[in-house]
Amino acid sequence: MTLPEPITTAALVLHELHGPLVWETLQIPTLAPDEIAVDIHATGICHTDLMLMSGELPTRQPGVFGHEGAGTVRQTGAAITHVRPGDRVLLSFDFCAHCANCTAKHPAYCAAFPLLNTAGHRADGSSPLQTAGGGAVYSKFFGQSCFSRVAVVGGRCAIPVSHDLDLRVLAPLGCGMQTGAGAVVNVLGLQRGQSVAVFGTGAVGMAAVMAARIMGAEVIVAVDVREERLRLARELGATHTVDAALGEGVVGAIQAVTGGLGVQFAVECSGVPPVVPLMLAALRPRGRAVSVGAAGITEEVRFNLFAHLMGGKEYVGCVEGDVYPPEVGALCWCKRGSG
């Protein structure tokens, strides 16, 4: 629908690759029936946003990014029934809700995921964000583009939350936190008493560490090159830490704390290809590993196929923790004060 008065918003806009984000005033002249205008209170910054800004992932300029938002509903499209103005919402990725993966509650693998999350426009080709002169702006990144005071988001991106939760804490749950935690819970299926190694302890890796602790893992090994991150990982639940600067020595260090067997599970959160063969080597026979760290679209991984086969090991990829956004488990942990 065309709004009686266009919404004016300040937004961080990228005009050229490797350039700065610049505050600009943009216009929101229309709101589709399945869209929501959200006043953004807080947003995280994800590595994927930085990859767009550097050209490692394809995008267009001018563009508004950001996909870890939280805020208050300002206005809703005609088809929106689950929230109303004034409601507080956590934002996550968009999905069609109709394809086979969506109906099976695996919307991160939605058949329409590229169109809804990375195309930079609505399905009809229009953009909800426009320059003062009416020019289209790349938007709807992960259904939201929340580097804007007001974000136009897909209805399924908005998850209602109670008023007693701090939106500044909630914002990263919509991507980074659910990615790390979901990889441990949904993809690896880690259970009490088992072992896991987490390679890369940025925000996503820390979420994996916390989830492993909550699930009752007996051995949680955090691997990183930065000592300050390893210290924090220990505070958050890691039972052991390993300096990634050891290179191939990382494998021996992990085996040393697992009776020589290696870990049952591993999560790669760095997006650095050479880490993957080390992670696989650190698995015990029939171990399972998952990569969640975003790498450039041309990056490739090499590992010893014979050793992988003989060890009966599994290696899978994972988007957004394979979560079903309306049932974000990490939100329940946040309410209970866990993690």
From TrEMBL:
<dbReference type="InterPro" id="IPR002328">
    <property type="entry name" value="ADH_Zn_CS"/>
</dbReference>
<comment type="similarity">
    <text>Belongs to the zinc-containing alcohol dehydrogenase family.</text>
</comment>
<dbReference type="InterPro" id="IPR036291">
    <property type="entry name" value="NAD(P)-bd_dom_sf"/>
</dbReference>
<dbReference type="InterPro" id="IPR011032">
    <property type="entry name" value="GroES-like_sf"/>
</dbReference>
<keyword id="KW-0862">Zinc</keyword>
<protein>
    <submittedName>
        <fullName>Alcohol dehydrogenase</fullName>
    </submittedName>
</protein>
<dbReference type="InterPro" id="IPR020843">
    <property type="entry name" value="ER"/>
</dbReference>
<dbReference type="InterPro" id="IPR013149">
    <property type="entry name" value="ADH-like_C"/>
</dbReference>
<dbReference type="GO" id="GO:0016491">
    <property type="term" value="F:oxidoreductase activity"/>
</dbReference>
<dbReference type="Pfam" id="PF00107">
    <property type="entry name" value="ADH_zinc_N"/>
</dbReference>
<keyword id="KW-0560">Oxidoreductase</keyword>
<dbReference type="Pfam" id="PF08240">
    <property type="entry name" value="ADH_N"/>
</dbReference>
<feature type="domain" description="Enoyl reductase (ER)">
    <location>
        <begin position="19"/>
        <end position="331"/>
    </location>
</feature>
<dbReference type="InterPro" id="IPR013154">
    <property type="entry name" value="ADH-like_N"/>
</dbReference>
<dbReference type="GO" id="GO:0008270">
    <property type="term" value="F:zinc ion binding"/>
</dbReference>
<keyword id="KW-0479">Metal-binding</keyword>
